[in-house]
Design brief:
Blueprint lengths: L1 E5 L7 H17 L2 E7 L15 H10 L4 E5 L1 H4 L4 H11 E7 L12 H6 L6 E5 L3 E2 L2 E2 L2 H9 L3 H7 L5 E7 L13 E3 L11 E9 L2 E11 L7 E7 L10 E11 L7 H22 L3
Parallel strand pairs: 1-2, 1-4, 2-3, 4-5
Antiparallel strand pairs: 6-7, 8-9, 8-13, 9-12, 10-11, 10-13, 11-12
Helix pairs in contact: 6-7
């Protein structure tokens, strides 16, 4: 039998981790199997184009926390189940269910923690975990999405399982950066991933066997008035990587995008950006 928890777990943030860690702890103590039930989508009210993590990243994170069984429920198949029907399935597979204080389930979210507690028996127990708070606010995926959209990546990252990241294929851009000494790699972003506030960021970069830092512009290059792009000037790197997979961890916000009156002004600004990046790297990543 399983000890389990249920949720979408986007970002696998500190609140999710408290639930999952409790599942693993109880399973080890009772020689049971730690399990997670998650969903393939948020449902009609969800923002499926604003995911913090891809499904693959989420599954990997949950497994790394010690979970053995991960069941993905098809949201459209369960959204109209009554609370009685949904709980009957869970009780047939689990002997302990770990949930948060505001856990809801069943058609129209009619099931709650009080209902679960009333339906405990000798073969089914419910463990309710307190919310994890920050500055008087509950840590939630919604809170973290808002932080990312506001450019507060450093704070968002401190609440997540791992730094917010974007992975995709390096595609051809306009090639303007290389003409004035700031060659960039243009990343094709996953369509369903949330986009941070437009601006310039310090990023960690992984491509092929290279791992290092760079500065990433997300949004529209105001000086040139071009379309949306995600461009990274990778420090100490000069290989051609078109068509390769690249992963960016967005570390910290540097500034908003702004138009420059000349290429020389842009170069001067980029020099200042890189100097700021190097200062952050020295303070936060040098041991």
């Amino acid at each position: 039998m399983n000890v389990a928890t249920i949720g979408y777990f986007d970002g696998v943030h500190l609140g999710h981790q408290r639930l999952i860690n409790k599942v693993v702890e109880l399973a080890e103590k009772e020689n049971l199997t730690p399990a997670v039930y998650t969903f393939n989508s948020f449902g009609n009210n969800g923002k499926t184009n604003e995911l913090i993590m891809t499904r693959g990243e989420k599954v990997r994170a949950i497994k790394e926390l010690g979970v053995k069984n991960i069941t993905t429920l098809i949201f459209n198949s369960v959204k109209n189940q009554s609370k009685e029907e949904f709980l009957a399935r869970i009780k047939s597979e689990c002997c302990v269910l770990v949930v948060g204080e505001d856990f809801r389930f069943g058609r129209n979210r009619e099931g709650d923690v009080k209902y679960l507690m009333r339906n405990q028996d000798d073969n089914f127990k419910v463990v309710v975990m307190e919310d994890v708070m920050i500055e008087g606010e509950k840590i939630s995926s919604t809170l973290i999405r808002n932080l990312i959209k506001n450019g507060e990546l450093k704070k968002a990252n401190s609440l997540l399982y791992e730094n917010f990241q974007m992975e995709g294929e390096v595609v051809r851009g306009f090639g303007r950066g290389r003409t004035f000494g700031y060659k960039t790699a243009n990343l094709e972003l996953p369509k369903n991933l949330i986009r941070p506030k437009y601006g310039v960021y310090l990023s960690k970069v992984e491509v092929d066997d290279f791992s290092g830092f760079g500065m990433t512009m997300i949004g529209v290059a105001e000086t040139f008035g071009t379309r949306f792009s995600c461009e990274t000037n990778i420090f100490d790197f000069d290989k051609e990587i078109y068509g390769r997979k690249m992963k960016l961890e967005i570390v910290d916000f540097l500034r908003e995008n702004k138009a420059m009156d000349s290429i020389e002004s842009l170069k001067k600004q980029l020099m200042q950006d890189k100097k700021k990046c190097m200062k952050i790297i020295e303070e936060d990543f040098t041991f």
